[in-house]
Amino acid sequence: MVPRTAQPIACSTVARQAPATAAAAPLQSFVFGTSEGNRRTVVVPVSRIFLAARPAAMLAPGGGETQLLKTAAALTERGYDARLWRPWEDSLRPGDWLHLFGSAPEFLPWVDVARRQGVRVALSTIAWFSLAAVWRDAPSWTQRIQRSLRYGLRAACPWIPSWRRRLYQQVDLLLPNSAAEAAQLRRYFQVPGSKIAVVPNAADP
To answer: Residues 6 or more apart from 6 whose CB is under 8 A from it?
Structure first.
């Protein structure tokens, strides 16, 4: 979010539109980003922003966790009440946003709780779907065949229920890192384009 190339939440649009006093006082609205193709900008009111990854993610942090921490730091610098979510301490309330990083089945109960409490949810999907990746990453020939068949079934029948499809359908906003990733969300999980804002990763100078 600090570089103009974009960040998972609040891309370069924030840098252009946020007032100079943003670091001194929290803003009342939040610009999520511009989706590639139609140049759409989504502006929504925001109270607090909680950011979270899978419970065990920090035991072996990777790119998604770096994305999370950098986003939290950048939002705080701009005056937003943004923090890492601690479910055992932080009570969600209407007006909050919960920003999840990655695609994991553990997120489903979190999304259910958030929606019941009037909290909107954004998801940085950090996902890629291709037959080559499925074939390469499977640990055995049996799993290669099984995963390849599931991939083919998903490509042919995107309406088939799965935890991933349910997650993508239930959140309020999906934040893929590229137009290609966004196209996969629409193709394989029938996510409407109105719920997607493409926000490429930024790079530290």
So the answer is: 12, 33, 199, 200, 201, 202
End-to-end Cα spacing for the chain: 12
Reported as a single tens digit per residue, the pLDDT across 51-89 is 998 876 665 566 778 888 888 888 888 888 898 888 878
Task: Provide the percentage of residues in the chain whose pLDDT is more than 70.
Answer: 74
Reduce the secondary structure of 162-200 to three states and give it as a string: CHHHHHHHHCCEECCCCHHHHHHHHHHHCCCHHHECCCC
Phi, psi values for residue 129, rounded to 5° = -125, 115
Q: How many whole angstroms separate alpha carbon 7 and alpha carbon 171? A: 19
Q: How many other β-carbons are positioned within 10 Å of the β-carbon of residue 110? A: 19
Size (the chain), residues: 205
Helices (H) and strands (E) in the chain, counts: 7, 7
Q: Rounded to whole angstroms, how far apart are CA atoms 160 and 79?
A: 42
Nearest alpha-carbon partner for 73 in 51, 42, 92 = 51
